[in-house]
Amino acid sequence: MVTTWRRETFGSRIGLVGIFDLVVFGGTGDLARRKILPALFKRFCAGQMPKPSRLIGAARTDMDTEAYRAFVRIAIKEFVDIPDGDDAALEAFLAQLEYVVLDARGDTGWATLQGMMAPDRVRAFYFSVGPGLFEDLACKLHQWNLTEDDSRIVVEKPFGRDLETAQELNAILAAHFHESQIYRIDHYLGKETVQNLMAVRFGNMLFEPLWNSQYIDHIQITVAETVGVAGRDVYYERAGAMRDMVQNHLMQLLCLIAMEPPAKFEPDAVRDEKLKVIRALDPVEPHHIVRGQYTSADGVASYREDVGNDRSKTESFMALKCHLSNWRWAGTPFYLRTGKRMEVRNSKITVVFKDAPHSIFGPEAGRHNNELTIVLQPNEGITLDVTIKEPGQGGMRLMDVPLDMSFAEALGEGSHAPDAYERLIMDVIRGNQTLFMRNDEVEAAWAWTDPLIRGWESRGDVPKPYDSFTTGPDGAAQLLRRDGREWRGLLS
Ligand code: NAP
């Protein structure tokens, strides 16, 4: 997908960034092409890659720096919408790129990379390779003496596939790096709206006094995608929606919505509060878990066809009803839902407030409650539904109207919110870990997730089929209907 790019005045709105070298292991891979390189280019255009900072791509593919620059030129043109004829910025960016042929598992390239390292600048190493290479890279960086005390490593998801493997990986990284050097990336945390969630909660007097089970009926978190798993089938068949989305992205959103106010917006203060949320999560009852698998429709293949396994028990959809055992949230359910091949691509959080305790207008006026909706994609923004009088003569009937704060509208056409990777990569360079997961957070998330997975595996549960491009299996709707509630629409 091409992202819109707006030329920013060179050097404007600079959050101060010093000189850095960013080494991208896996610099020829899909993530580098689609996300990392375009993100860095946009930050370059914003003046945040001051000379002589460099991006050094590293992979096994045999090519020189000129060939790599040509490869990156094509990627940037594919994924960033650069106005015609405006290639000067791109060429200036490419001049700050280098490439090294390197094998994470062998000795090729490491001496060359060592020779390329320059003193007096931030060194960041992005592990944009399969998780099977994380240990090799950590050991090689150490063996070749490539890191300094303030060097950083960026580790992509998946971070383990259960508690045991996450602990092993944490131990491997900890053998070579201090926790303050490790940036476990979850790109959901870099989204503008996700951070706005904290601004809305903790920057306004309005919501926080109501932010508890006394006033909030329930909270829904939905991350729906229209794509299937084709192209990622091998990974996905081993992971499923629980490992791919719930254990990380949805859980992080749940943490931000449910956490206590941290004393300061500082890495450990925020992460301490998120950790407390994960640790307060109750085990989930089996009848509060709904798993589904998409079937074929409109000429697209079914999940089982996509993964080439006609007996697959991996879920491409998941809905859960969760509870937090703490003072703030006792009695307020959190409903989480995520799936592939849903009717639309939409990620949002809906906070449903309780009804007013008594209606002075009588039953004929109708009853309404407030809802705060935070949309993460596609159109980031926040809406508050408030109750007003239905216009017209005679009687008092109530209706809901949205107080809509679409960010593009509120902040003006020219506003450019950096995408998640832009922000997160710059946070790595600045040395700010607030939006990255700490070792104990990741392990606590797996400690909650593992028994749920083991539970359905030991019961031999098979995911329920659902039609592609719908809202998922019937059981997901039943999960809320049993409680007298409804999912908020994906289309609205
Ligand atoms: P990919 O397209 O398969 O790329 C893998 C990269 O690793 C290639 O550049 C490959 O280049 C390099 N590589 C493989 N073996 C190597 C070795 N022995 N030594 C050095 N380099 C080696 O994978 P990807 O999709 O970019 O994903 C990279 C990481 O990001 C994975 O951990 C994935 O789970 C995570 N991730 C990806 C996405 C996404 O949208 N793609 C999203 C979230 C997370 P050579 O073959 O030239 O060596």
TrEMBL record:
Keyword list, A-Z: Carbohydrate metabolism, Glucose metabolism, NADP, Oxidoreductase
Record: active site: 249
Gene3D superfamilies (UniProt xref): Dihydrodipicolinate Reductase, domain 2, NAD(P)-binding Rossmann-like Domain
E.C. number: 1.1.1.49
Record-level GO BP terms: glucose metabolic process; pentose-phosphate shunt, oxidative branch
Domain Glucose-6-phosphate dehydrogenase C-terminal span(s) in chain numbering: 198-488
PROSITE patterns noted in UniProt: G6P_DEHYDROGENASE (PS00069)
Keyword match Oxidoreductase: yes
Residues bound to NADP(+): 26-33, 60, 157
Functional pathway: Carbohydrate degradation; pentose phosphate pathway; D-ribulose 5-phosphate from D-glucose 6-phosphate (oxidative stage): step 1/3
PANTHER family linked: GLUCOSE-6-PHOSPHATE 1-DEHYDROGENASE (PTHR23429:SF0), GLUCOSE-6-PHOSPHATE 1-DEHYDROGENASE G6PD (PTHR23429)
Designated name of the protein: Glucose-6-phosphate 1-dehydrogenase
Organism of this sequence: Shimia litoralis
Record gene name: zwf
